[in-house]
């Protein structure tokens, strides 16, 4: 795909959140080092932003050093920091759809998505998806995607995500874990350029069950699944006790960790690299990254938003695009 411009399409997200201001801060930091085009209503950018309207992402390559390239979408409402306006819901959705269309037809190398506010999308447009990721999967026509949290220090994938802890052992089935591992292995190769990825699997129970003394799932099926998938050619280890899996020496032995539930995955990466974690969606037919935070209504428009995670998300999208096999 050497003919695809290495430009990232950045959808604006919720205009009343910190998305517009961190997009400008990211452009000021990155410029031509990581060219991107912002998709949204330029009225929602911070006052005084230097921007230029473009028709295609490729045009960003010539102007991104001097000005923020913007592919405009007209929204129905203004943007008041901290106060979501449901009238803007249709525009937010169109920005996401536009970004997906650009990467699908080869006009952009990857997409990065600023945070959305689900309630505003439901109220204003009857948004029918549990979240951003599910909407992207529907647009791409895929059934199962995987969330990876990534930074320079750690890549981790939660096998189950936003469910109560009491439900994890039921939701985590052999089919679910097999699918998560398979998608992760493929994504590490196809999108990170790691030809033989090494994946460590965390145990579900404390001390990975300690031989059944602290839980049976490892003995009942997790061990066997890992052995089966290793025989299929995936370089798997585990299940490992989660409390010894994330220190520096352990991290040198794998390219990614499969964690069993939300906090088992997110606590270590947010401890190691809170401001620079990136949300990566694996299993899509295109590259998608996003900052690992929400709309932050409480600080929107106050000049306090930290753009570090968005900067890392844009840079990671560019790096992943460059690493994709030709």
UniProtKB/TrEMBL annotation:
Cofactor(s) for this UniProt protein: Zn(2+); Mg(2+); Co(2+)
EC numbers on record: 1.1.1.262
Pathway: Cofactor biosynthesis; pyridoxine 5'-phosphate biosynthesis; pyridoxine 5'-phosphate from D-erythrose 4-phosphate: step 4/5
Annotated cofactor note: Binds 1 divalent metal cation per subunit. Can use ions such as Zn(2+), Mg(2+) or Co(2+).
Chain residues that bind a divalent metal cation: 162, 207, 262
Pfam families in alphabetical order: PdxA
UniProt key word ATP-binding: no
InterPro entries for this protein: PdxA, PdxA_fam
Entry keyword set: Cobalt, Cytoplasm, Magnesium, Metal-binding, NAD, NADP, Oxidoreductase, Pyridoxine biosynthesis, Zinc
Molecular-function GO terms, alphabetical: 4-hydroxythreonine-4-phosphate dehydrogenase activity; cobalt ion binding; magnesium ion binding; NAD binding; zinc ion binding
Catalyzed reactions: 4-(phosphooxy)-L-threonine + NAD(+) = 3-amino-2-oxopropyl phosphate + CO2 + NADH
Keyword Cytoplasm: yes
Record localization: Cytoplasm
Gene Ontology CC annotation, any one: cytoplasm
Other facts: The active site is located at the dimer interface.
Similarity annotation: Belongs to the PdxA family.
Subunit composition and interactions: Homodimer.
The protein, known as: 4-hydroxythreonine-4-phosphate dehydrogenase
Organism of origin: Tritonibacter horizontis
